[in-house]
Amino acid sequence: MIVYWILLLPTAFIAYCAGSISTLSIASVFVFHRDLHHIGKKRMFVSNFRRLYGYKGFLKLILVELLRDFVPVLLGGLLLGFKGHADIGRAFAGFCLVLGRLFPVFNNFRGSHASVCLAVTMFCANSSLGLATGAMVLLFTWLTRYLSVGAIAGALTSILVGVLLVDDSLLRMLLILTAAIVLVKNLPALRRISRRTEMRISLEEDISYKFDEKF
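Above: the chain's sequence. Below: its structure in C-alpha coordinate form.
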Protein backbone atom coordinates (compact mmCIF):
# COMPACT_ATOMS: atom_id res chain seq x y z
CA MET A 1 0.00 0.00 0.00
CA ILE A 2 2.87 2.39 0.84
CA VAL A 3 4.35 1.80 -2.60
CA TYR A 4 1.07 2.82 -4.25
CA TRP A 5 1.00 6.07 -2.26
CA ILE A 6 4.59 6.76 -3.23
CA LEU A 7 3.60 6.39 -6.89
CA LEU A 8 0.24 8.17 -6.68
CA LEU A 9 1.39 11.30 -4.86
CA PRO A 10 3.98 12.46 -7.44
CA THR A 11 1.55 11.51 -10.20
CA ALA A 12 -1.15 13.70 -8.69
CA PHE A 13 1.24 16.59 -8.02
CA ILE A 14 2.80 16.62 -11.50
CA ALA A 15 -0.52 16.19 -13.33
CA TYR A 16 -2.35 18.83 -11.31
CA CYS A 17 0.47 21.36 -11.68
CA ALA A 18 0.67 20.68 -15.42
CA GLY A 19 -3.05 21.31 -15.74
CA SER A 20 -2.74 24.50 -13.72
CA ILE A 21 -0.12 25.98 -16.03
CA SER A 22 -1.65 28.06 -18.82
CA THR A 23 -0.98 26.91 -22.36
CA LEU A 24 -0.36 30.54 -23.27
CA SER A 25 2.36 30.78 -20.62
CA ILE A 26 4.17 27.72 -21.95
CA ALA A 27 3.81 28.81 -25.57
CA SER A 28 4.97 32.34 -24.73
CA VAL A 29 8.25 31.09 -23.29
CA PHE A 30 9.14 28.10 -25.47
CA VAL A 31 7.46 28.70 -28.85
CA PHE A 32 6.52 32.29 -29.65
CA HIS A 33 9.03 34.08 -27.36
CA ARG A 34 6.48 36.79 -26.66
CA ASP A 35 3.95 37.23 -23.89
CA LEU A 36 0.76 36.10 -25.62
CA HIS A 37 -1.36 37.37 -22.74
CA HIS A 38 -0.69 40.92 -23.96
CA ILE A 39 -2.12 40.28 -27.42
CA GLY A 40 -5.68 40.79 -26.22
CA LYS A 41 -8.55 39.28 -24.30
CA LYS A 42 -11.35 36.98 -25.39
CA ARG A 43 -12.40 37.70 -28.99
CA MET A 44 -9.69 40.30 -29.34
CA PHE A 45 -7.07 37.64 -28.61
CA VAL A 46 -8.35 35.31 -31.34
CA SER A 47 -8.35 38.05 -33.94
CA ASN A 48 -4.99 39.53 -32.99
CA PHE A 49 -3.32 36.14 -32.67
CA ARG A 50 -4.57 35.07 -36.09
CA ARG A 51 -3.36 38.30 -37.63
CA LEU A 52 0.09 37.97 -36.08
CA TYR A 53 0.70 34.22 -36.44
CA GLY A 54 -1.97 32.89 -38.79
CA TYR A 55 -3.55 29.45 -38.66
CA LYS A 56 -0.10 27.84 -38.38
CA GLY A 57 0.24 29.71 -35.12
CA PHE A 58 -3.02 28.21 -33.88
CA LEU A 59 -1.72 24.77 -34.83
CA LYS A 60 1.42 25.37 -32.78
CA LEU A 61 -0.72 26.50 -29.85
CA ILE A 62 -2.83 23.34 -30.06
CA LEU A 63 0.31 21.18 -30.20
CA VAL A 64 1.62 22.89 -27.07
CA GLU A 65 -1.63 22.14 -25.26
CA LEU A 66 -1.65 18.52 -26.41
CA LEU A 67 1.94 18.06 -25.28
CA ARG A 68 1.16 19.70 -21.94
CA ASP A 69 -1.70 17.22 -21.45
CA PHE A 70 -0.17 14.03 -22.83
CA VAL A 71 3.11 14.15 -20.88
CA PRO A 72 1.70 13.95 -17.30
CA VAL A 73 -0.92 11.37 -18.31
CA LEU A 74 1.68 9.11 -19.91
CA LEU A 75 3.97 9.67 -16.93
CA GLY A 76 1.20 8.48 -14.63
CA GLY A 77 0.90 5.33 -16.69
CA LEU A 78 4.65 4.83 -16.52
CA LEU A 79 4.80 5.19 -12.74
CA LEU A 80 1.82 2.96 -11.97
CA GLY A 81 3.08 0.58 -14.63
CA PHE A 82 5.73 -0.55 -12.15
CA LYS A 83 2.88 -2.19 -10.22
CA GLY A 84 1.09 -3.46 -13.31
CA HIS A 85 -1.61 -0.75 -13.36
CA ALA A 86 -0.55 1.56 -16.17
CA ASP A 87 -4.14 2.14 -17.30
CA ILE A 88 -5.19 3.19 -13.81
CA GLY A 89 -2.15 5.45 -13.60
CA ARG A 90 -3.08 7.22 -16.83
CA ALA A 91 -6.70 7.63 -15.75
CA PHE A 92 -5.69 8.96 -12.33
CA ALA A 93 -3.20 11.38 -13.85
CA GLY A 94 -5.88 12.51 -16.29
CA PHE A 95 -8.28 13.12 -13.42
CA CYS A 96 -5.70 15.29 -11.63
CA LEU A 97 -4.85 17.05 -14.90
CA VAL A 98 -8.50 17.98 -15.44
CA LEU A 99 -8.74 19.24 -11.85
CA GLY A 100 -5.76 21.47 -12.53
CA ARG A 101 -7.35 22.77 -15.72
CA LEU A 102 -10.70 23.47 -14.06
CA PHE A 103 -9.30 24.78 -10.77
CA PRO A 104 -5.74 26.02 -11.47
CA VAL A 105 -3.79 26.99 -8.39
CA PHE A 106 -1.79 29.49 -10.45
CA ASN A 107 -4.92 31.42 -11.47
CA ASN A 108 -6.88 31.66 -8.22
CA PHE A 109 -8.67 28.37 -9.05
CA ARG A 110 -10.50 29.94 -11.98
CA GLY A 111 -10.06 27.59 -14.90
CA SER A 112 -11.40 26.84 -18.35
CA HIS A 113 -13.58 24.24 -20.06
CA ALA A 114 -10.93 21.43 -19.93
CA SER A 115 -12.27 19.78 -23.09
CA VAL A 116 -8.81 19.02 -24.52
CA CYS A 117 -7.63 17.52 -21.22
CA LEU A 118 -10.76 15.39 -21.14
CA ALA A 119 -10.25 14.07 -24.67
CA VAL A 120 -6.57 13.32 -24.01
CA THR A 121 -7.41 11.46 -20.79
CA MET A 122 -10.04 9.35 -22.51
CA PHE A 123 -7.76 8.63 -25.46
CA CYS A 124 -4.94 7.44 -23.19
CA ALA A 125 -7.36 5.12 -21.41
CA ASN A 126 -9.14 3.86 -24.53
CA SER A 127 -8.38 5.14 -28.03
CA SER A 128 -11.94 4.61 -29.30
CA LEU A 129 -13.36 6.43 -26.30
CA GLY A 130 -10.91 9.28 -26.79
CA LEU A 131 -11.69 9.64 -30.49
CA ALA A 132 -15.44 9.69 -29.78
CA THR A 133 -14.97 12.31 -27.07
CA GLY A 134 -12.70 14.47 -29.20
CA ALA A 135 -15.06 14.24 -32.17
CA MET A 136 -18.02 15.44 -30.10
CA VAL A 137 -15.98 18.27 -28.59
CA LEU A 138 -14.94 19.48 -32.04
CA LEU A 139 -18.38 19.00 -33.60
CA PHE A 140 -20.40 20.85 -30.97
CA THR A 141 -17.80 23.58 -30.57
CA TRP A 142 -17.90 24.16 -34.31
CA LEU A 143 -21.69 24.07 -34.56
CA THR A 144 -22.37 26.34 -31.59
CA ARG A 145 -19.11 28.35 -31.42
CA TYR A 146 -19.15 27.80 -27.64
CA LEU A 147 -16.21 25.98 -26.04
CA SER A 148 -18.32 25.13 -23.01
CA VAL A 149 -20.95 23.38 -25.14
CA GLY A 150 -18.21 21.32 -26.76
CA ALA A 151 -16.95 20.37 -23.30
CA ILE A 152 -20.45 19.34 -22.17
CA ALA A 153 -20.94 17.22 -25.29
CA GLY A 154 -17.53 15.61 -24.80
CA ALA A 155 -18.24 14.86 -21.14
CA LEU A 156 -21.60 13.26 -21.90
CA THR A 157 -20.01 11.19 -24.65
CA SER A 158 -17.23 10.07 -22.31
CA ILE A 159 -19.75 8.88 -19.74
CA LEU A 160 -22.05 7.07 -22.15
CA VAL A 161 -19.38 5.49 -24.33
CA GLY A 162 -17.15 4.75 -21.35
CA VAL A 163 -19.87 2.63 -19.75
CA LEU A 164 -20.05 0.59 -22.94
CA LEU A 165 -16.36 0.23 -23.76
CA VAL A 166 -14.47 0.10 -20.46
CA ASP A 167 -14.68 -3.20 -18.62
CA ASP A 168 -12.43 -2.57 -15.62
CA SER A 169 -14.64 -1.15 -12.86
CA LEU A 170 -11.98 1.06 -11.22
CA LEU A 171 -10.84 2.46 -14.55
CA ARG A 172 -14.43 3.11 -15.60
CA MET A 173 -15.17 4.87 -12.32
CA LEU A 174 -12.14 7.17 -12.69
CA LEU A 175 -13.06 8.08 -16.26
CA ILE A 176 -16.71 8.70 -15.44
CA LEU A 177 -15.74 10.83 -12.43
CA THR A 178 -13.37 12.87 -14.60
CA ALA A 179 -16.07 13.45 -17.21
CA ALA A 180 -18.69 14.23 -14.55
CA ILE A 181 -16.53 17.00 -13.06
CA VAL A 182 -16.10 18.57 -16.50
CA LEU A 183 -19.84 18.30 -17.09
CA VAL A 184 -20.84 19.89 -13.77
CA LYS A 185 -18.24 22.67 -14.11
CA ASN A 186 -19.51 23.65 -17.57
CA LEU A 187 -23.27 23.36 -16.98
CA PRO A 188 -23.59 26.96 -15.65
CA ALA A 189 -22.44 28.11 -19.08
CA LEU A 190 -25.82 27.06 -20.48
CA ARG A 191 -27.48 29.74 -18.37
CA ARG A 192 -24.95 32.31 -19.54
CA ILE A 193 -25.61 31.27 -23.13
CA SER A 194 -29.35 31.79 -22.65
CA ARG A 195 -28.57 35.26 -21.31
CA ARG A 196 -26.11 35.88 -24.15
CA THR A 197 -23.26 36.60 -21.74
CA GLU A 198 -21.10 33.59 -22.63
CA MET A 199 -18.11 34.29 -24.87
CA ARG A 200 -18.58 32.85 -28.34
CA ILE A 201 -15.78 31.97 -30.72
CA SER A 202 -15.74 34.49 -33.53
CA LEU A 203 -14.04 33.95 -36.89
CA GLU A 204 -14.68 37.51 -37.99
CA GLU A 205 -11.71 39.79 -38.49
CA ASP A 206 -11.25 42.45 -35.84
CA ILE A 207 -9.85 45.74 -37.17
CA SER A 208 -9.84 47.67 -33.92
CA TYR A 209 -6.09 47.14 -33.67
CA LYS A 210 -5.68 49.75 -36.42
CA PHE A 211 -6.66 52.38 -33.88
CA ASP A 212 -4.27 51.02 -31.26
CA GLU A 213 -0.67 52.15 -31.46
CA LYS A 214 0.42 48.94 -29.77
CA PHE A 215 -0.33 47.04 -32.96
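Residues 2-211 form one domain.
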